[in-house]
Design brief:
Elements (H helix, E strand, L loop, with lengths): L1 H10 L15 H12 L3 H10 L15 H7 L3 H9 L14 H7 L22 H4 L4 H14 L14 H7 L3 H15 L11
Helix pairs in contact: 2-3, 2-4, 4-5, 4-6, 5-8, 6-8, 6-9, 9-10
Amino acid sequence: MEHRQGRAERSAVPSVNNAYATMALTDAQIAEVSAAAHRGDAAAVMNLIATTPDLVHAKEPINGWTPLHIFARLSLAPAVQQMLALGADTEARDGAFRSPLHLAARADASPTLPSTVKGADASAAPPSASATGAEPHDARALATMGALLKGGARLTARDSFGMTPLHHAAQAGLVESVNFLLGLTVSLSRGCARVRVRVS
């Protein structure tokens, strides 16, 4: 009887080794951190995570994106690096089983989106690259993918349709991203994939 009771007590204790065991987050908290990430406001996201660390793994209900997914999609390499430093999971999957690297490969951001965006109005027309001094979009996309790969993202990860990040880049018609990922894929097949992308 004592043996059974001991087993029951042990099973009721949550495992500290569960990397995804997080405290209950409210819908409002998830909405706030997701909205800040969509604005490209890395500072706001970091402040929210500093207050509630579990927000680093928060997933918005519609797409299942974490803040890392969103920053990757927007090609914001510095924000991606900050998220990785806080323990964000490079292999977190969204509703379509896409990792942040899948979204970075698509680079859905506007080519003229500044490298640092704070409180951006999504309804407003994006400023020109010359007016903002924005880094070229291809360079930001490559830097973002490089940061994710250095953080442990898998080049061969497949989504629910069996597509890899390379497939996504090709589908989006992003030649530079395709060449970058294709070069790594060739190197990987030879047993020596190296990531040499400068991330400022």
